[in-house]
Amino acid sequence: MGSVRLLPGREKSLLRRHPWVFAGAIDQVKGSPTDGETVEVLDSRGNFLAWGAYSPASQIRVRVWSWLREDQIGADFFLQHLGAAIQARQGLLMERETNALRLVHAESDGLPGVIVDRYADTLVVQFLSSGAERWREEIADALLQLTDARCIYERSDAEVRRLENLPERCGPLRGDAPPRQITILENGLRFLVDVYQGHKTGHYLDQRNNRRIVRAMAQGRHILDCFCYSGGFLVNALAGGAASVTAIDASQDALELARQNLLLNQLSLANVDLQQADVFQALRGFRDRALRFDLIVLDPPKFAPTASHIAQAARGYKDINLLAFKLLRPGGILVTFSCSAGVDASLFQKIVAGAALDAGVEAQILYWLFQAEDHPVGLAFPEGAYLKGLVIRVK
Ligand code: SAH
Asked: Does 348 share its domain with 308?
């Protein structure tokens, strides 16, 4: 069994139960551990701190599996911890009409690098670290045992795998290949999910609660849904009685899925305008034509994939929020998001406040929004809080 000994003082974050050991914190590695192998993490005096998975290619060199010396990392460990994560979801969403949710949220569920999303009776998994990859078969077996899933599909094609020197891998992992499109129920509305090609594992499950808020505010309003993807906000806006919705996405496939999702929910396309465009350009075009809306949703992709992109991301967020403020009628509502982990909620609020100032509008925050509760944030792992949003009313 290999071990990793830390430099003096570098045990502090681990003592606070933060699950990452950066390469720069390590004094000595013993036993030449291979990719994903379990290592013992020791402080500078040789005291046990944790068991973790070794990632030789990554700056995050070790991710902690367990803080308990008596634990053994193996099939039983994963059965127990995956079971606990799945159990913790019970009762969260039961009362709502929803059959698609995140069952395992990586570090925040004590399982670094492991993502499991349930879409009806299909599970979609991502192994995002060397450690998760090492235990792939054990994790798949445990999931079959713990759920009534008919198939498990792997979507290990996330960018972060590159940092771990892991190749992309997608395909059926257990059971038959899932259907090309799975119909899920989310808060009583139906959505088609393409687990083969869709973004992330197929659907932005993290926005479930925030879509309900838009639905509750939609009645009679003229709505602009920017970055609409498969129509999560759009479908909710119409279900909530919107007078009209203009929805924009750069991807024609996404817009087609959005159109199908409207039909699937028996919603009329009569007052819907689906536009394939770049949102930055479209908003400028609307401004030049003096168009106005009552409610605007801005749900862009991650502008800051890493910390080094934060300044550039901030400019992007400011730009679209400034334009959106200009397009709102007096009393209008802006529902604006960032899913960049590096832009925290307070920085995001500052960026949006700067945009309002430059747009010359006075505004107030009605709600602070976050990712849904099936994407919990470990208290010792603030990095887990990646999605933040604001609902803002302009005067
Ligand atoms: N609101 C969606 C999720 C949005 S994901 C939901 O609730 O499910 C971000 C979307 O932005 C993707 O569909 C992507 O195709 C689109 N996109 C990325 N850059 C864009 C741009 N510059 N202009 C328009 N759409 C863009």
From this structure: yes
Determine the distance separating the centroid of ligand 1 and the alpha carbon of 317, expressed in angstroms: 13
Among 32, 66, 100, identify where a domain stops.
Answer: 66
Token code pair at residue 6: 């830390």
Grouping H, G, I as helix, E, B as strand and the rest as coil, residue 36 is: coil
Pocket probe mutation, ligand 1, options 193, 210, 229, max atoms within 8 Å of Cβ: 229
pLDDT at residue 306, as a whole number: 81
Residue 184 lies in a domain: no
Q: How many other CB atoms sit within 10 Å of the CB of residue 191?
A: 24
What residues does ligand 1 touch, defined as CB less than 6 Å away? 204, 207, 227-230, 232-233, 248-251, 254, 278-280, 299, 301
pTM: 0.96
Q: Give, for ligand 1, the residue of 227, 251, 252, 278 to mutate: max count of ligand atoms closer than 8 Å to Cβ.
A: 227
Number of domains in the chain: 3
- Is 170 designated active site? no
Nearest to 258, CA basis, from 226, 285, 282: 226
Instruction: Assess whether pLDDT exceeds 70 at residue 95.
Output: no
The Cα-based distances of 33 to 56, 76, 112, 231 in angstroms read: 8, 22, 18, 46
